[in-house]
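User: For my dataset I need records formatted as: sequence, then structure tokens, nothing else. Please produce one.
Assistant:
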Amino acid sequence: MSAFYLTALQMALCLGPMAMGIFISMKVFNIPDITTDGSYTLGATVTAIMLTANTPVWLVLPISIMAGALAGTFTGLIHTKLGIDALLSGILVMTAMYSVNLMILGRSNIPLIDIDSIFNKLPFSPVEQYNELLVALLFVAVLLSMIIYLLKTDFGIAMRATGNNPIMTKAMGVNNDRIKIIGLAMANGLTATSGFLVAQYQGFTDINMGIGIVITGLGSVLIADTLKSWTGIRKIGKQIILVVIGCIVFQTVLAFTLSIGIDPNLLKMVTALFVLFIVALPRISKSLAKK
């Protein structure tokens, strides 16, 4: 397998939890949560600080998740308790998170070279690249199983119902505000997990690494939507799996773009154009079908 595509697959798996978080906020709750940019960097920031302080990696993971969940909780509280639009709430928290992340880091970036990571703590393969791939795959598989199980429980059904018809759930005695806050905390905890993985995979944490990351998650969810319409899949568990597949497709397209010699400086523009294409694809298909 080409190094471009192997790296793309590895990065897609590391970003998989973030794509799942975007799915929960956008598709379960119908909330465009921009907190993602800040909580992703927060997960990486906490990871870098704790690993450089020789904290065991098994302790770094839950703390990174809780940090991201806390950011999501603030967004939920601002939205539900202060009655501020969800999009604006996310923007406010994301903006504040830049300063928080910078204070935690103490500088613009921290290298993680020669520091033990989750990828060498779990020796599945003697080949480093394949071992990293297997560790990331294990993470994604465990998270997928947990989220699919959760969304099929009574609480998960209440979450989905709150997103679909909050008036009905409120009439049934469900505390919609509390459900939304918990859901946004979950989504951003998953996003921070991606920050935890990516920081260790790329070997550094940078204060600007989260800028535009929400576009990657959004693109993955939109690709999953397209695949869902083509396959007719309706079960929530399979939809989440499609999100991870969408993330892999998204990263593969970016890898292909680099492999054919496109200037890396244009990568963000290519990303935006690709997401635009995915968003416009259903309308283009309908227009062609009418003709």
